[in-house]
Amino acid sequence: MVLIVLGSDSDLPTMSAACSTLDEFGVCYSLRILSAHRVPQEVAALASSAQEQGYRAIIAAAGMAAHLPGVIAAYTTLPVIGVPLQSKVLDGQDALYSIVQMPPGVPVATVGINAAKNAALLAVQILATSDASLSDALQSYKQAMAEAVLNKDSQVQAMGYKAYLQERSRQQ
Ligand code: RP5
């Protein structure tokens, strides 16, 4: 249901969090490694056929001058979620600006630098607009997050911040 495209296999360690998040929600996906700069024709062919192949959302991740999500968005009307990836020289800001500043008419829903998990969650949210069980799963996910925060709040109040910090570093 979700197509994940990476600009390089060097992006996979960061983007594996998108795969594991989709796994958590039982959402099936395909993972491809195709570069907008190195294999532009393959990217065009994949993006052009993504809808008829049954995909409902696309996650595209790239670093440096990150044209991959925008090029994919040029070839499809499926929602494209762009993930800017951190690189050594400009720390991911190059990719962030490349992906987020799409010209009018060709949007890419851009998440934060290296925000693979949020990209997957956004894809799940898109699918959940027409899938009640996914919508329920997202509600449970939010509820679990809320309970975790409230639990931490209770603990810090009960223990005081010093003991809380000690306990936290002991667990890490
Ligand atoms: C981008 O260039 C890729 O998305 C990757 O983040 C970056 C570097 O690619 P490699 O040289 O590691 O293949 O296209």
Quaternary state of the chains? single chain
Write down the overall mean pLDDT. Answer: 97
Q: Which structural class do you get from the secondary structure elements?
A: alpha/beta
How would you spell out the order of helices and strands? EHEHEHEHEHHH
Characteristic key phrases:
7 helices, 5-stranded parallel beta sheet, 172 residues, binds 5-O-phosphono-beta-D-ribofuranose, Rossmann fold, globular, 5 strands, alpha/beta
Tell me about this structure.
The model has no long low-confidence stretch (mean pLDDT 97). The chain has 2 domains: 2-130, Rossmann fold (3-Layer(aba) Sandwich), CATH 3.40.50.1970; 133-171. The chain has a 5-stranded parallel beta sheet with strand order 2-1-3-4-5, sandwiched between helices. 52% of the residues lie in helices and 15% in strands. The longest helix is centred in the C-terminal third of the chain and has 28 residues, at 132-159. The chain has helices spanning 12-24, 40-49, 68-74, 93-100, 116-128, 132-159, 161-171, and strands at 2-6, 29-33, 57-63, 80-85, 109-110. It has 7 helices and 5 strands. The chain binds 5-O-phosphono-beta-D-ribofuranose (RP5). 5-O-phosphono-beta-D-ribofuranose (RP5) binds at residues 7-8, 10-11, 35, 62-64, 85.
Task: Break the fold down into its secondary structure elements and pairings.
Elements: E1 2-6, H1 12-24, E2 29-33, H2 40-49, E3 57-63, H3 68-74, E4 80-85, H4 93-100, E5 109-110, H5 116-128, H6 132-159, H7 161-171
Parallel strand pairs: 1-2, 1-3, 3-4, 4-5
Helix pairs in contact: 1-5, 2-3, 5-6, 6-7
Bound molecules: 5-O-phosphono-beta-D-ribofuranose.
